[in-house]
Each structure stands twice: as structure tokens, then as C-alpha cells.
Design goal:
This protein is α/β, with parallel strands linked by helices. The protein is built from 14 helices and 10 strands. The strands form 2 sheets. An 8-stranded parallel beta barrel has the order 1-2-3-6-7-8-9-10, surrounded by 6 helices. It binds 1,6-di-O-phosphono-beta-D-fructofuranose. The site of 1,6-di-O-phosphono-beta-D-fructofuranose has 14 residues, from helix 3 and helix 13.
Length: 306
């Protein structure tokens, strides 16, 4: 596999990592249509766990089949495919070596009142299945946030020692956080920064709004003139909060919605310097041909062609 100078520069930001970890990051960064550009588009399919099968797959029934998602990520020329244990196991043999996989190590479900997730896989599973990375969600603000951070401390240590990359979904929720605060720009940047401090190689957050949640932080944003009025400015601020661009940060797609709205949002993420997007429902809930077209347009945006 050829590694471009751009990818080599990104890898050099991960100063303490072993050749194994860097090789797995390189596999993701060199895959698909964005291979070598330093940009990423990832397909995540853990919504069956988080929201249930019908809410996730009834809009496009072929998506009940785990192979559908491997194939979609591959055909669309994406960078990687992320899913929980059972989904990866169900296609790992047929698609071995064809698309980098990220084993989602913990999951929530809609039947629990807790803002917490169960650890449902191991680093040994990720190695057995040929994954490039482990994926883990933390819920900053929740009553269980510290336990989640301690879980990823141990899993990240084991993953890195095994040469696997670490992707952290940092989704503030629970505790005293307001609903609006979950995506407020100060909270989003804070959540992304904490994921960096926890040792994540790739950080995943939701696109931030212009809201400011914490009074103490809001004063600094105002007094210091931190620019957060456009999504591109807010994205740049999140990128800056990720060790000034030394860590890769990708932004999620959210609930399925109109194509132009989504593409315009992604253009602003790109303009703000996002590493890329991680788009689930907007992809697999559309009929396959439509999804391929949409993912093609998203990749084109990160290629600077759209
Ligand atoms: P989507 O593009 O479907 O939003 O996927 C991104 C994701 O992070 C999934 O990995 C996860 O299942 C889902 O969002 C969680 O969404 P929410 O936190 O809104 O329940």
C-alpha cells in the first residue's frame, strides 16, 4: 500500500504510537475514493442497537442484512465501516481485507433509562475479526461519564498495545446538560477535546450549533472573540480544540433528511477543516442507488469537487 505525504504528515502527529497503530490508521486513510487525501467518510451502523431494528432498517429493508452495509461502504468507496460485534461477525469472512472495519465496543439501547452503554466486545474480538480500530462512545455530562472514561482508558491501552487504532464517539448528554446544550459549540468542543485527552486517534462529534451552554465558557467566547456564528467557524473551533488539528475529527450525519440540507452542512464542515463525515442513517435508510449517489456527492465535497 502506497502512503502519501499528506497521510505521512497526519501520522506524524501520533508521536507515541507503534508502527502497528500507524499502519492501521494508514489502512483507513488510504482506503476508497478519499485514499491518500487525509479526508475520511465512514459508514456507522450501530443504530440497530441504539434505536432498534425497525426504526433503523424498515425505511430500506435490504439494510436488515449485515452484508448490505459492507457492500455499501465498499461500493461507495468509503474509508471504513463501523459496527457492533454481531454485525461485523456476520460479514467479516466475505469481506475480509476489502474495507477497514471499526469494531464498536460499547452500545446503548432505547430500552434503558440510563445514559450509559454496555461494553459488548473485546480487543481480542477486534483482532480476530481483522478490524483496524476499536470504536467507543462516551457520554460527557452523564452520571456514568467517569466510568465510561475509565473503560476507554483500559480498552484504549489494550488496543494500542495490540496495534489497533482508537475512535471515540464523544456525545454529551445526561446530567445537568440541557437538550440544546448537547450540541452547543462550547460543549461540543469540550467533548472533542476530552476525547483527545483520553487518547483517541479519531474523534467523532455531532455538528455544533451556535448555542453556548456554560456561563463561564460563554464569557470567554464573547470576551476573546472566538468566532462561532457560522458552522464553518464552529467546525474550525472544534478542530482547534482537537490539539490544533493534530487529531482527526469527523462529524456525524444525524437523522435522515433532505439531500441538499445535508450536503450544505457537509460543505461547511469541510470549509471549517473537518477531517470528514461519519454518515449512517442518511446513507442506509435511502434506497441503495440513492445512497450511493449521496455518498458519492459527500466524497466529492471532501475532494473539493462539489
Ligand atoms: P447517524 O449518521 O445515523 O447519525 O450515525 C451516527 C451515530 O453516531 C451512530 O453511530 C449512532 O448510532 C447514532 O449516531 C446515535 O445517534 P443518537 O445519539 O442521536 O441516538
Amino acid at each position: 500500500m502506497r502512503v502519501t505525504d499528506t497521510v505521512r504528515t497526519i501520522l506524524s502527529g501520533y508521536e507515541s504510537e507503534t508502527p502497528g497503530v500507524k499502519a492501521n490508521l494508514a489502512r483507513i486513510l488510504m482506503q476508497g475514493r478519499l485514499g491518500g487525501t487525509g479526508k475520511l467518510v465512514i459508514l456507522p451502523v450501530d443504530q440497530g442497537f441504539e434505536h432498534g431494528p425497525a426504526r433503523s432498517f424498515a425505511p430500506n429493508p435490504p439494510a436488515y442484512d449485515p452484508h448490505y452495509h459492507f457492500d455499501l461502504a465498499l461500493e461507495a468507496g468509503l474509508s471504513a465501516y463501523a459496527a457492533p460485534l454481531g454485525m461485523i461477525e456476520a460479514g467479516a469472512g466475505s469481506f475480509a481485507g476489502q474495507i477497514p472495519t471499526i469494531l464498536k465496543m460499547n452500545s446503548a439501547n432505547s430500552l434503558s433509562r440510563l445514559k450509559d452503554q454496555a461494553v459488548t466486545a473485546s480487543v481480542a474480538d477486534a483482532l480476530r475479526l481483522g478490524c483496524s480500530a476499536i470504536g467507543f462512545t462516551i457520554y460527557p455530562a452523564s452520571d456514568d461519564q467517569f466510568e465510561m472514561m475509565e473503560e476507554i482508558r483500559d480498552l484504549a491501552k489494550e488496543a494500542k498495545a495490540s496495534g489497533l487504532a482508537v475512535v471515540v464517539w464523544s456525545y454529551p448528554r445526561g446530567g445537568d446538560l440541557s437538550k440544546e446544550g448537547e450540541t452547543a459549540v462550547d460543549i461540543c468542543a469540550y467533548a472533542a477535546h476530552m476525547a483527545c485527552l483520553l487518547g483517541a486517534h479519531i474523534i467523532k462529534v455531532k455538528p455544533p450549533t451556535a448555542a453556548l451552554e456554560l456561563d463561564a465558557a460563554a464569557k470567554v467566547y464573547r470576551d476573546r472573540g472566538v468566532l462561532v456564528s457560522t458552522l464553518a467557524e464552529r467546525t474550525a473551533h472544534v478542530v482547534q480544540s482537537c490539539f490544533n488539528g493534530r487529531r482527526m475529527v469527523v462529524f456525524s450525519g444525524g437523522e435522515a433528511r433532505d439531500t441538499e440540507g445535508l450536503l450544505n452542512e457537509i460543505r461547511q464542515l469541510r470549509d471549517g477543516g473537518a477531517t470528514g463525515s461519519i454518515v449512517g442513517r442518511n446513507a442506509f435508510q435511502r434506497p441503495r442507488e440513492e445512497a450511493l449517489e449521496l455518498l458519492g456527492q459527500i466524497v466529492d465535497i471532501y475532494l473539493g469537487k462539489a
